[in-house]
Amino acid sequence: MRALIKINISLALLLTISTATFFAWQHFYPVTPHSGWSYQERLTDIQSPGAILLDSQKNIIVTEELTKSRGKIWKINPEGLRQLLVDNLSKPDGLALYNEGIVFSQEAGPFPVNLLRDGKIEPLFNGTNVQTLTVEGEYLYAIEDRKGYQGRLLQYHAKTNSLNILRDNLDEAEALVICPDGQRFYTEKDRGLVKKFSEDGQDSIYLQGLHQPGSLFCDAQGLWVSEDRNHRARLLLRKPNGELQTILSFLKSPQVLHPIAPGHYLLAEGGRDRILELKQLD
After folding, report:
1. Is 55 a residue whose pLDDT tops 80?
2. Under a CB-based contact definition with an 8 Å cutoff, are residues 177 and 185 in contact?
3. Among 7, 8, 232, 249, whose CB has the most other CB atoms within 10 angstroms?
4. Among candidates 271, 261, 185, which has minimal Cα distance to 227?
5. How far is 278 from 260, CA to CA, in rounded Å?
6. Distance CA 141, CA 103 (A)
7. What's the rounded Cα separation, in Å, for the pair 165 and 11?
8. 14: in domain
9. Considering the domain boundaries, does residue 130 fall inside one?
10. Rounded to two decimals, what is the model's pTM?
11. In a domain, 238, yes or no
12. Domain range holding 189?
C-alpha cells in the first residue's frame, strides 16, 4: 500500500512539474519571424495592450484591456513619456481617430462608444461588447463580440447622429477592416472565419480554419490577421495572389497591428504586456 501511495505521489508531482514546464515554455518561447521579417520590443510594461494607433504627432495611443474598471487608455510620446488619457474602463478595446477626437469602446458589457475630444468624453451610441472601431470618411463602424449569434455590425454618422445596423446574428465578431480598395472583411472568432462583406447581404467566407482570428488590418501587402489565442498564436498575411503566409509565430494573444510606414508596423502582444515593432527586411 505504501509503495502504491508513493507511486501516486510521484506521478502527481511529475504531472505538476510537466504542466508547469509546458506553460513556462509557452510563455517564454521566443516569437519567431518568417524569413524576410524582423521584430523587436518597442514598449514593455503595458498591461494587456489591445488597441493601438498613432496620432498626428506620432504619439502612440494604446489601451490596457483590463476588466472591472481597471482598463486605461495611454498616450506615449516618441521619447516614451506616458500620459493617462482615460481610466476606470472595462476592457477598452476599440480605438480610432474620428470627428477631431479619439473614439473608444469597452468589450465587457453594455457600454456606450465614446468620443474623447479636448479632454472631454461624450457618449455617441450604445452597444454591447463593442470591440473593433473602424473609420471610413464620415462614418464610424463598430462590431460587437457577442456569443450565440447576438453580435451586430453598426454604422454611425456623427453629423446626423444616426445609427444603422448593417448586420446582426453574428457569432463572436471581433474585427472589421476596410481595405484601400473598398473591400470589407470581418471575423467570427470562435468559428475561425474571416468573411467578406457584400452589399447585397450575401457575405462569403474568405478565410477559414484559422485559430481564433481576432484582429484584421489591410494594406498594399494584403489582409493581415492576428490569432487571439494564449499560446502558439500567429500573425498571418493573406497576399493579393492568394498565398497565406505566417509572418510571426509563437505569439501570445496578439491584438491590433498598426502601420508606421510601408513594411513597418506596431503589434500589441497582449499576453506578454508589450508592443512589438515589426519590419520587413530589404
Report:
1. yes
2. yes
3. 249
4. 271
5. 9
6. 11
7. 56
8. no
9. yes
10. 0.89
11. yes
12. 31-280
Q: Is residue 225, in this structure, part of any structural domain at all?
A: yes
Q: In the 8-state DSSP scheme, what is residue 46?
A: -
| Cell numbers given for 102 | 479619439
Number of structural domains found in the chain: 1
- What is the model's pLDDT at position 17? 42
Contact 48, 64 (CB under 8 A): yes
Strand 264-269 to strand 254-261: parallel, antiparallel, or no bridges (unpaired)? antiparallel
CB atoms within 10 A of CB 13: 10
- Residues 99, 117: Cα–Cα separation, whole Å: 9
Identify whether the C-beta of residue 112 lies closer than 8 Å to the C-beta of residue 104.
no
Strands laid side by side in the 37-44 sheet: 37-44, 274-280, 264-269, 254-261
Say which CATH number the domain at 40 has: 2.120.10.30
Asked whether 12 and 6 are in contact (CB, 8 A), the reply is no
> Mind listing the pLDDT tens digit for each residue in 222-249?
999 999 988 899 999 999 999 999 999 9
Q: Does residue 16 have a pLDDT over 60?
A: no
